[in-house]
Amino acid sequence: MRTYKLTAYEKTGELITEETFTAENDELAKEKGHALLEEKNLIEQTHRLASPAGKLLLFHV
Q1: Strand runs (DSSP E) across 1-61, as ranges?
Q2: Measured between alpha carbons, how far is 59 from 61 in angstroms, rounded to an integer?
């Protein structure tokens, strides 16, 4: 399992949420990250999901 980091921000740059979770691969992490954003109603907020290697898997401004 690999550890991924999901962050979401206000347009002002203020941090809304920062979560870490594990997934077996990048595709599963993208699905889980997207689901977390929808669950918290943050899908339209500025957000990013980073892999353990620093690769951006999800990014929205």
Answers
A1: 2-9, 15-23, 46-50, 56-60
A2: 7
CA dihedral sign, ordered 32, 3, 27, 43: positive
Token code pair at residue 7: 């962050």
Through-space distance between the first and last CA atoms of the chain, rounded to whole angstroms: 28
| The overall pTM is greater than 0.70 | yes
Residue 28 CA to residue 13 CA, distance in Å, equals 27
Q: In whole angstroms, what is the distance from residue 39 CA to residue 43 CA?
A: 9
Predicted local distance difference test score (pLDDT) of residue 44: 95
- Where b means 16+ CB within 10 Å and e means fewer, 15-40 reads eeeeeeeebeebeebbebbbebbeee
